[in-house]
User: What shape does this take?
Amino acid sequence: MKVSEYIVKFLEKKDVTYVFGIPGAHVLSVYDELLKSDIQSIQVTHEQSAGFMADVYSRVSHKPGVILTTAGPGVLNVVNATAQAFVESSALFIIGANCKKKLWGKGCYHELKTPDAQMNIFNQITKFSTRIFAGDEVIQKMENAYAICCEGRPRPIFLEIPEDVFEEDVKGDFNYNIKKVENPKPSESEVNEFLIKLKSSKSPIIISGGGVIISAAQDELIEFSKKLNVPITTTIMGKSSCPSLFEYNLGFCGPFFSNPMVINRVLNSDLVIAIGTRFDELATGFFTLKIQGKLIHVDIDPSEFNKNYSCDMAICSDAKRFLSIVLNKINQNNINEYKKVFLPLDTKLTSDSNKKLPSIKNKVSPDVLISEIGKCFINKESIFVGDAGNSSSWLLGLQIQKNQLIITPSGYNSMGFSVPGAIGAKLASPNSNVICLCGDGSFLMTGLELLTAIAKKIKIICIVLHDKEYNMLTIFQDKNYGGRYSDTFINTFNFAEFINTNGGLGILVSKDEDITLALKKASSYEGVSLIEVMIDSDLVPPILSKLKN
Ligand SMILES: Cc1ncc(C[n+]2csc(CCOP(=O)(O)OP(=O)(O)O)c2C)c(N)n1
Ligand SMILES: [Mg+2]
Assistant: This one.
């Protein structure tokens, strides 16, 4: 069996459903093998999009997103999306070609400065990179790489194969198998120590981060909080770890982005239990979040401990395993010993968020738009995919429920994430409504992937915030550069018309009153729809307004 055939058989064995990418001469042999397989190739318009699709596919399905790409430009087009997945913890399994090994150094087609150039680049943005150099290495190296991709903190891995290796015969033990390494869990003594600390604390609080969503520990988090009356505050990445209206959910923990009463709760808590957060710049409101009480930090990756906040106890564990083991132990004890008194926040002081900012330019208020999106998808299983820029800032105001997810870049923050990301989300969760919210600038980067969605009949709703500017940046130019808008206005086009003439449904919305009908039409349309919303860019998202002042 040739290596190219083995690769497809290997992916089948791992229950891979989709491969994202674009063929090139160097990987045509693998694409040829795909024709014989049930694995679907999702051919994109740009390999960067394959990266974003695979990233969100992985975040939603909790399985690696597989990318297949050709040497040189193909592989390097995936770099930015790989970096995004690395920073924001998503599992990509990237199979990238290199030039024929027998031609290295001769100036062959797609060749870079050295044969190691691709590997060197990917070493910086993956948790593991390796090269398959001969047919007798393929079995072991693919199994190892896949196992590494699936275990621990989800992050990308890069597997490089020179073109001539695809043609070699596979040699070795076809039954070679690696025993799955379970994600870390707390030791018994750690659980006991944790419970002693919890029992003696008077005002514990949970900071819930993206790790809770990655390990699908939302139910356990809610059960823990409800049973013991422990309030939850979330990071930005952790927003959908807990329904917005859950009575113990206090909102964001980062100063600048949240209610001062929440910041005070964290400050005055005698025990902060941080789960699945790396305490990054946005999560901590530019590192201004203060913790005075004891900090117990639970994370799958020990390199995150004591980086920004020194902790009294570090527990290296997967969030779900930690919470279920602790819950199990508590359930065996007298639960009342752990139960706290929960004081809700003063609703008179928190009710601000119910007032929607009206448009001052007679255009659409993004605040009203977000609220209408929330109403339209209420009680419906939905995934909202945001992008860099103000789309994600506004999206953070969305009230979400159980069975709803927000996935938006917030650590590495690359523009162009949302349209391909939404396609990945729908493939991973076909029964969910998938709504992509992106700025016009971000749409210009990867919006052509709507053609991919149309070709493959992948029903997503794309909402473009049309303001003809990089609004997030003009806000900073207003604040810091005397309103001098250097290169932040952009040329756009008629987004709705584009989709209408290319096999989808386009709707133009210029007033608040028209939002609801547009959302209804898009929801009931059995194809790809785009709602182009003429946005009042003078309105500043609440999470940025404090920065503006
Ligand atoms: C690939 C990439 N290039 C540049 C940036 C810097 N950047 C951050 S937000 C932003 C503007 C986003 O504009 P748009 O998508 O129109 O959203 P808006 O803020 O206008 O709603 C830019 C250029 C980035 N994050 N990613
Ligand atoms: Mg814009």
